[in-house]
Write a structure and sequence with these properties.
- This protein is of the alpha+beta class and 958 residues long.
- Among the domains are: 110 residues, PAS domain (Beta-Lactamase); 158 residues, Alpha-Beta Plaits; 225 residues, Alpha-Beta Barrel (TIM Barrel), CATH 3.20.20.450.
- 46% of the residues lie in helices and 23% in strands.
- The chain contains 28 helices and 34 strands.
- The strands form 7 sheets. An 8-stranded mixed barrel has the order 25-26-28-29-30-31-32-33, surrounded by 5 helices. Strands 1, 4, 5, 6, 7 and 8 form a 6-stranded antiparallel beta sheet that branches. A 5-stranded antiparallel beta sheet has the order 14-13-17-16-15, with helices on both faces.
- Helix 27 links the parallel strand 32 and strand 33.
- Helix 1 crosses helix 6, helix 1 packs antiparallel against helix 7 and helix 13 runs antiparallel to helix 14.
- 32% of the residues are buried.
- Bound molecules: ligand LFPHGCPZ.
- The site of ligand LFPHGCPZ has 23 residues, from strand 26, helix 18, helix 19 and strand 30.
- Ligand LFPHGCPZ binds next to strand 26, helix 18, helix 19 and strand 30.
- It is found in: Membrane.
- It catalyses: 3',3'-c-di-GMP + H2O = 5'-phosphoguanylyl(3'->5')guanosine + H(+).
- Keywords: Membrane, Transmembrane, Transmembrane helix.
Length: 958
């Protein structure tokens, strides 16, 4: 939790605010007291000064009144008397500049006065003041003339001055007479013309004995007055000075007089105290408290005003108490707030620490609770998992096992013992290799042991166990190492499952993959394996072993004659007899078709092999019943002896095969050991095969044509196209040596196509030629091999050749052997019909040597039967052969087929055939197969070439 403190706590702020409030209140209270005291003091001092001024003015009037008494009490006062009387008055009241006596006189009295003054003042005359200059007064009805004046020497020129013309005099006199009291003039200028700061006080004088109670009486009785010239500033200053009231620097005293309120006196330099006001604020709050006292009063008919203002003072002078209270209060408030803040902060820090600790404790507690809850969940999950695991184990076919650090089983679930039919006590506390001592002898066991030593997991460990019920079962284990919390190895744990079913299935699959489905014998794959084992065994013991390649003689005939089912039965019977003819340790395998291989090993006695072989041949030669008929099957056997004839292991079967061919060549139903010379033939065969692959594109093939002659007319009616291979090194290779090879390799398909195209083109050319000569067209017979017959585009390709060469379909005769039909009769029928639909003729070649089922002759759209030359050869000498030929001719007649005999070499044969109604013949008697040019010459001349014209085919080894 973040530790946060506010800059100023609330309590401190409240304390500060309270302190400031109290301080403010205290400050205001003290300031109010100070203000009250100041106000009172000011009022006192101001009033004192105003009263002093009023009293001084009254004193001035009193002094004048005293002077006026002199004239009332003495009938004839002289100037000397007046001077003497005035002198102490003037000394006592220095603000009175002069005292004078003025007489209200008529002109006669002026004259009398002038006369009276003349002795002491020659040329004395009553005067006026005009423009500040004293001039003789003109004659007037009345004069108010200054008769006496004090102090005399200083104001001697004032005697005789008529003051009545002065503007202030008449109204003042009138007021005086009206009120019957002394009167004062407005302010006048005396010393300085521009400054009106003086006034004159007048006290009336009445004629003695006359009443003066009313204004009329007083005007009637008025004879003059006593006047005092007073200088107002002087007057006021004297009054204040005498009263000791000039030493207060904080007061501004100003005195105004007259209707115009002329300032006649001021104590300060400031002209206006109001200018000192610093700011507009409550007077008690301001540093300066602007106070004034103004008193207006009347002095002998003139208005006077005295104004006293308090001058500004330093704040401290009057507010030290409030200021101390303010500063003290502020300091106290701040200190109190700081103290409260400090206490608050400390309290908060303590609270924060407490909260922190509390939160830590709560978090720890929560974590603890979480941990406990998580642990409980984990335990529950574990229990559930354990339960599920046990349920799964119970439900599944698998089991669980554990081993300790020494790989001894410590725990195996029940499933294992139920499956394996073994006892728990035989497993718990023991290792795998203690249970099965031979475990570590196997490669699998050693690899497993190495994995355990390396503490590595393992998977798919397969092992077999023979249970107490005597059955052997297969199991599979998967495991991983177990470590404790400290990382120490504790053993292994894992699961196991019964894989017996899978193993059996695999065995079955392997068996199928390695065995021939028809006979159950090992197939070519397993044969190789067994052969390797036998070779290894022979190598280990320095023993001999023999490989027999067994080929059935004339199996094709049986198969073609009786069909596949019979053929299969025959092969199964042969397989059983072979198996029974050898020892258990020997191997008998089916290589292909009617070829079998036997491996005879572990025969210590070398001489034993021929016995075994003879036994095999004898067993196979036993009659067997197929399709209700009894058959005898012979075989030809080739034998390769390992470590005897120098055959390398990988060529054993090949050499046995060569030897088997050799046996066949020797006349079948015999066996032959392989020897080195046989290998040469095989190599030659391979050489031819290699050359055959290039022969077509190198143009090494040519066609020879053998005429087919109509026996009735003796004319050539057709020819059979026969393939010849002119090899640059081997010379002319006979078809017997390469047609079979071309069949095996599939090369017969392109070669056959070339033959068909060439033969058709040639026939078309000859027929064109013959047509020009008015001769009948010739038919060309072309042999079709089994591979060609199986080509899906056979019909289309023949049609294309006919179309391409322009040969009419009726001129093409396709020669087929019976073996082509036996595999799939229905398909063969369809195909023959399709070919027939093209318009070509179909011949059965070598008729009588194969299946020779007369029934198919009805089904198949056959046109010609060609009697095999093996029957023709002996017709003249062998009654049986002759009977067969006669039967074939009769059959053809019945089926309305053309019949042609091949291999006719003699006139006797020719005669026999002609005598029995054979349609056509082909044979050396008429012509051997010849090149095209020769054949062309033959058909042009109508003569056949001599039988010796065609050289005999060269032997392969040539
Ligand atoms: N699929 C193909 N097979 C072909 C082709 N060319 C030939 N062959 C087949 O090769 C076999 C051997 O043929 P060949 O050596 O040409 O022998 C033929 C004749 O020379 C021979 N013959 C003819 N008259 C006589 C005779 O009076 N005596 C005697 N000993 N032999 C004679 O017979 C062979 C013709 O036989 P066939 O075809 O059955 O009519 C052979 O089987 C050819 O079929 C080919 O292009 N394609």
């Amino acid at each position: 939790m973040a530790r946060r403190f506010t800059p100023v706590s609330l309590a401190a702020a409240v304390t500060l605010a309270a302190g400031l409030c109290v301080t403010g209140a205290l400050f205001l209270a003290v300031a109010a007291l100070e203000y009250g005291k100041l106000t009172e003091s000011f009022q006192q001092r101001a009033s004192l000064r105003v009263a002093a001024i009023r009293r001084g003015l009254d004193d001035a009037v009193e002094a004048l009144t005293v002077a006026n008494q002199l004239f009332r009490t003495m009938p004839d006062v002289t100037q000397q008397q007046f001077g003497d009387f005035a002198k102490p008055l003037l000394q006592r009241h220095p603000f009175i500049m002069s005292l004078s006596h003025q007489h209200w006189m008529t002109h006669e009295e002026r004259l009398a006065f002038e006369a009276r003054m003349a002795p002491g003042h020659p040329g004395f005359t009553v005067t006026d003041l005009r423009a500040g200059r004293v001039v003789p007064a003109p004659v007037r009805e009345r004069y108010l003339v200054t008769e006496m004046f004090a102090p005399l020497p200083a104001h001697h020129g004032s005697l005789g001055l008529d003051v009545w013309p002065l503007s202030a005099t008449p109204p003042t006199a009138e007021r005086m007479l009206h009120t019957g009291k002394p009167a004062a003039t407005p302010l006048v200028s005396v010393l300085q013309p521009a400054r009106r700061d003086s006034f004159v006080l007048l006290v009336p004088l009445y004629r003695p004995g006359m009443p003066a109670d009313t204004p009329q009486q007083r005007r009637a009785a008025w004879i003059g007055d006593t006047a005092a010239l007073v200088r107002a500033p002087h007057l006021v200053h004297t009054i204040l000075q005498d009263g000791g009231l000039l030493d207060d620097p904080n007061l501004l005293l100003r005195v105004y007089a007259g209707d115009d309120a002329d300032l006649v006196y001021t104590t300060g330099a400031e002209a206006d105290a109001d200018d000192r006001r610093w700011f507009e604020a409550p007077p008690w709050l301001a540093f300066h408290h602007p106070q004034h006292v103004a008193k207006r009063f009347d002095l002998l008919g003139q208005s006077w005003q005295v104004r006293v203002d308090a001058l500004p003072r330093p704040f401290l002078a009057d507010h030290a108490g409030s200021l101390i209270a303010l500063v003290g209060g502020l300091l106290f408030s701040l200190l109190a707030a700081a103290l409260v803040h400090t206490l608050e902060q400390r309290s908060r820090r303590v609270q924060w620490l407490v909260d922190e600790r509390t939160a830590d404790l709560q978090r720890s507690n929560a974590r603890l609770n979480d941990d406990v809850a998580a642990r409980k969940r984990t335990e529950r999950a574990l229990q559930e998992s354990e339960h599920r695991f046990r349920r799964l184990l119970a439900l599944s076919s698998d089991w669980y096992w554990e081993q300790d650090a020494n790989f001894c089983f410590t725990h195996i679930t029940d499933g294992f013992f139920e499956k394996a039919h073994v006892q728990r006590k035989d497993y718990i506390g023991r290792t795998r290799w203690q249970i099965r001592p031979d475990f570590l002898e196997s490669k699998t066991g050693r690899e497993h042991h190495a994995l355990l030593q390396a503490r590595l997991p393992f998977a798919g460990l397969e092992h077999e166990i023979t249970g107490e019920d005597g059955l052997t079962r297969w199991f599979q284990s998967t495991g991983e190492p177990v470590y404790d919390a400290q990382g120490d190895f504790r053993g292994y744990r894992g699961t196991g499952s019964d894989i017996t079913e899978r193993k059996l299935t695999e065995q079955r699959i392997r068996h199928i993959a390695h065995h021939d489905a028809l006979t159950g014998l090992p197939n070519r794959i397993l044969l190789q394996d067994r052969l390797a084992q036998a070779i290894a065994y022979a190598n280990r013991g320095g023993r001999r072993m023999w490989v027999l390649l067994i080929d059935l003689d004339r199996f094709k005939f049986v198969n073609d004659t009786l069909g596949h089912k019979a053929g299969d039965q025959l092969l199964r019977t042969i397989a059983g007899r072979l198996r029974a003819s050898v020892r258990e340790t020997d191997t008998v395998a089916r290589l292909s078709g009617d070829e079998f291989v036997a491996i005879l090993s572990e025969h210590a006695d070398e001489a034993l092999a021929p016995d075994v072989i003879d036994r095999i041949m004898a067993a196979l030669a036993q009659p067997m019943t197929l399709e209700g008929k009894e058959f005898c099957v012979t075989c030809s056997i080739g034998v390769a002896a390992y470590a005897a004839d120098g055959t390398p292991a990988e060529h054993l079967i090949e050499h046995a095969d060569i030897a088997m061919y050799a046996a066949k060549k020797l006349g079948r139903n015999r066996w032959q050991f392989y020897h080195g010379a046989m290998n040469e033939e095989t190599r030659e065969r391979l050489r031819i095969e290699g050359a055959l692959r290039n022969a077509l594109e190198r143009g090494e093939f040519v066609l020879h044509y053998q005429p087919q002659v109509d026996l009735a007319s003796g004319h050539i009616v057709g020819m059979e196209a026969l393939l010849r291979w002119r090899h640059p090194e081997l010379g002319v290779v006979p078809p017997q040596r390469f047609i079979g090879l071309a069949e095996e390799t599939g090369l017969i398909v392109p070669i056959g196509a070339w033959v068909l195209r060439t033969a058709c083109a040639q026939a078309r050319a000859w027929n064109t030629m013959r047509e020009a000569d008015g001769l009948a067209p010739l038919r060309v017979a072309v042999n079709l091999s089994a591979r060609q017959f199986a080509q899906p585009d056979l019909v289309a390709s023949i049609a294309a050749v006919l179309d391409g060469t322009g040969l009419p379909a009726a001129c093409l005769d396709l020669e087929l052997t019976e073996s082509l039909f036996v595999d799939d009769v229905a398909q063969a029928v369809d195909l023959l019909h399709a070919l027939k639909a093209l318009g070509v003729a179909l011949s059965i070649d070598d008729f009588g040597t194969g299946y020779s089922s007369f029934s198919y002759l009805r089904t198949f759209p056959i046109d010609v039967l060609k009697i095999d030359r093996s029957f023709v050869a002996d017709i003249a000498s062998d009654a049986d052969e002759a009977a067969i030929v006669v039967s074939i001719i009769a059959l053809a007649r019945n089926l309305k087929l053309r019949v042609i005999a091949e291999g006719v070499e003699s006139t006797a044969q020719l005669d026999f055939l002609r005598a029995h109604g054979c349609d056509e013949m082909q044979g050396y008697h008429f012509s051997r197969p010849v090149p095209a040019e020769e054949f062309e010459r033959m058909i042009r001349s109508g003569h056949a070439c001599a039988p010796e014209q065609e050289p005999e085919p060269l032997p392969l080894s040539a």
